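Protocol step 4 of 5: obtain the predicted structure for the target chain.
Materials: sequence only (see below). No template structures provided, no constraints applied. The aim of this step is simply to have a reference model before the mutagenesis design in step 5. Sequence pasted as it appears in the construct record:
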Amino acid sequence: MTIRMSLACLFLASWLLGQGTEHLTLEALGHPTQKKALVAMPPTRLEWLPDGTLLQTRREGEQMMLLRVDPSTWEARPLVDPARLQAALVAAGLPEAEARSALGRGGFIWNEPRTAFLLGAADQLFLVDVKTTLARRLLTGKSEEPSFSPDGTQVAFLRGNDLYRVDVATGKEIRLTTGGSDKVFNGRLDWVYQEEIYGRARGSKAYWWSPDSRRIAYLSLDDSQVPLFTLADDRFQPQKLHQARYPKPGDPNPVARLGVVDLQGRTAWMKDPHPGRETLITRVGWDSLGRPVAILTDRIQSWMELRRLEGTDATLLVREQGGAWVDPEHFGDLPLFFKDGGFLWASDRSGHRHVYRYDARGNLLQAVTTGAWDVRKLRSLDEGKGLFYIDANMRSPIGLDTYRISLDGKDIRRLTERLGTHSIRFNANHTAFLDTWSDIHTPPQQSLHDDSGRLLRLIDANPSEAWKALALGKVSFQQVMTRDGFPMETLLILPVGFDPTRKYPVFQEIYGGPGTPEVRNGWSRSMPWYQFLAQNGIAVWVCDNRSASGKGPASAFGIHRNLGAQELQDQLDGLAWLKAQGWADMDRICIDGWSYGGFMVTYALTHSKAWKLGIAGAPVTDWKLYDSVYTERYMGLPVDNPKGYDTSSVLRAAKDLSGQLLLLHGTLDDNVHPQNSVMLIEALQKAGHPFQFVLLPGAAHGPRSPEQAWAIMQARWAFLSKNL
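Step 4 output (structure tokens):
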């Protein structure tokens, strides 16, 4: 379940501390034509080039400018003339209007030295040489997920559900796989692998070039036995049907195989190391010696293995087992490899995520990092300098910093200075990095730093004068203890003009899913909505139950096989702290959430009486209705855990609804199917409970159109205004 929604995540804005007097309007936040552009993200789009300079992409009118920036002087020169670039595409056979549109969209796919890029337009793929500003048509016909080989001589791509390559020099096209169909995906992720294992941000690509450009590792996913789920788009006559292979708990999963194909189309298949058992192949790549490596788990993700292919045999290097589950979606990335094949591997085995060093045969050498904090990302390795780099929450459980660490773990240096959330990008030799930073009061800023973290240039200060003029409620973080002593992180925004002797209603936003904290010291796109509420006399409360806290995987294990119960108890403990403050009107609290948050809202309203109102967007109302990979990780198979599935079901508890409920759901939600809300509506009607329902025609799991966003905002505010 990788998509999360909150009301104001649909609206880009920013918040700064200030002493202003102006007030927000609902229209300024979300109206399709009256919405105000309050602040922007950092406007300078940069990426490192191999020679240590920067590539800046900048839109000027309809044109996309490509500039080379010298990081020492900040002098910018055109990398290529846009007029010549457009003329080159026209000369290659692309109509002028199509060429202008394609260049305006960007989406360039570069080779490794950044001397050429691919550009798709009108079901054609063009190759553009930056140095000569020449373009030529490389492919005709629909092609997807193209990528250069490391040496730049080949381009692999998907056509339908098969893998192809084209020789860059000759334009000769070769089909590498056969048998792809609507049920068999060669080199392409199916729905559940993309959603729950590799992530939508990676696209649908399921193939990986070897370092020597001679082979491609790829997944073949056979969905023949996976049930077909159909969504009807009733906005048209006749209806349009949207179908996808979608396994629900206990259903047949895709059958995954790992193949390695050479440039002539000959595939060698990895021998199944667990014949007769269902497994998932959760990561694929290559080690430093050019050998394929893969990470596998069992179906319910109770163990994880790192294996290296030697011929077709899959040699076991590391096996992780012992906790309630492993999480390949969030914490299952490949290791960083040394030149001899040894590697650094991130593991949850201690209850926190830390780095371990192994030799090339899979022998553990040492634990490199330890402590009551978590490595969020094993970033990169500089073997020559004896250093590696991680992102971690060592300084603050609600922040994120980047650290440089010696290979023996004895020298750890934090490179990011300001308290908050950092996202950095190193140059090729780790002598400089770009840093995008924010905290709860400051929208993202972009800066340039040297390898010690020293600030070289503030690139985007990203000021927000409009927000400084607003009357704003006080924002604070608190740690709130559960009854058994777990420190939950919370965010509180007090109403503007707060008077501690008064009683205030409370709007509580929640997600609550395993390992997915909402409380963080970083810029929140929800802040404009929160401050709108604060200006209207409503306090805002966000509390991460322990399983959502991200404080080590072990902190979430208490929800294993019984989703909802411990999360609700933690949230009730949070409300007890809120009550003790004296100013919160505990009879006027609204809980709001989307996706897993929608589950938490409906679960809370059917398993307690603590909330007056609930707003549930796209809720999972019974875990038998969600997908197999996500659900079985936490709940196991229905046949093995019938009690857990029953007790976590909102549908079974619908008769116990307490408080007023607003439901929202998109008709084309292919993630949390609208079936969840339809079945809950039926159960509520049978129980005689009133509710409100807002249907979002054509909307997927995260509604994106301005009209849908406005409809959601209007419905929520009307519901709050009338009932809270």
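Step 4 remarks: Residues 3-18 have pLDDT under 50 and may be disordered. Residues 45-175 form a domain with the Methylamine Dehydrogenase; Chain H fold (CATH 2.130.10.10).
Proceed to step 5.
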